[in-house]
Amino acid sequence: MTSDTDESRLPSLFEADLIDDALQTLHTIQDWLRWGVSRLHQSGVFLGHGTDNPWDEAASLLATVLYLPPITDETLFSARLTLEERREFLRLLQQRIEQRVPAAYLTNQAYFAGLPFYVDERVLVPRSPIAELIQQGFSEQLAGRVPERILDLCTGSGCIAVACAYQFPEAEVDAADISPDALAVAEFNIAEHQLQHRVFPILSDGFSGLAGQQYDLIVTNPPYVDAEDMADLPDEFRHEPELGLASGHDGLALTRQILRHAAAHLTEHGVLVCEVGNSMVALQQLLPEAGLRWLEFNQGGIGVFVVDKAELVRCQPLFEEF
Ligand SMILES: C[S@@+](CC[C@H](N)C(=O)[O-])C[C@H]1O[C@@H](n2cnc3c(N)ncnc32)[C@H](O)[C@@H]1O
């Protein structure tokens, strides 16, 4: 995945004499964290796959090397690394910087709604603002109702489904995805969280594998990057499955399907919560007529809309044309 451009942009960060020097002069966790942070900083890697600063990235890589939970305890900073541990940290850091592999894929771990999830390149790295809504129990969106049946459509790692199951301990959750590879990861995470008795992975293209099923809450983070933006994404995104990102020329192919078919899969007071990206501009033009309510997040280019069954039914003709 390393391109000529990457190599020419970073000629000196991992040169042999710099590495030898570091191996001889840096000993403690703190030494190596600082060194890692400065390398990440200089390299200009894209931060946004679950971490937003070089310190967290370096600390997560180092914690993996040392088989530790995330390093937040400063009393550990003076602990010395073995030569083998230092070399392994360097290897991960080099992959992060030169091949632009997101840290979550190097550590095989990401956090979502405060819960740990196994991740690898079969699934998107969890980072949806929907985590916040789950932690608030969708209290505003559901007007205090407690959902008994939930669908996480486009489940990927299963993060939304599992987090919903924690938030609503009586609910049953279907976790649907078109990708058997992604579902295998979701299944693993469901088992890790011991939720097999009420979170069910389902192979489904949109709603096609969910005939006759109805839910009180449908939550979905579908792919929504348009063709133009796909071409411009930072290299880190090339490690993620394209199925998890791209959705037709305008990024709305799957969202359209969801808007057209969700009503049939919602119970009487059921609600759809759906994430969108830059494609939200097109959807926002529907706003005056369709009952989409937008939620604000401080994450550029990401929006979440909420719509209930009655509005979806009322706006069906609009969605058919859209
Ligand atoms: C943006 S990722 C979301 C993953 C996870 N829910 C999250 O928030 O991190 C989108 C997921 O949708 C799945 N997907 C793409 N097209 C689909 C379709 N037509 N039907 C169901 N799932 C689909 C992809 O395989 C991918 O796992």
UniProtKB/TrEMBL annotation:
It comes from Alkalimonas collagenimarina. It comes from the Bacteria. The keyword Electron transport does not apply. Pfam families: MTS, PrmC_N. Methylates ribosomal protein uL3 on a specific glutamine residue. Keywords: Methyltransferase, Ribonucleoprotein, Ribosomal protein, S-adenosyl-L-methionine, Transferase. Residues 31-107 form the Release factor glutamine methyltransferase N-terminal domain. GO terms for cellular component: ribosome. Belongs to the protein N5-glutamine methyltransferase family. PrmB subfamily. Its EC number is 2.1.1.298. Residues 142-229 form the Methyltransferase small domain. This is Ribosomal protein uL3 glutamine methyltransferase. It catalyses: L-glutaminyl-[ribosomal protein uL3] + S-adenosyl-L-methionine = N(5)-methyl-L-glutaminyl-[ribosomal protein uL3] + S-adenosyl-L-homocysteine + H(+).
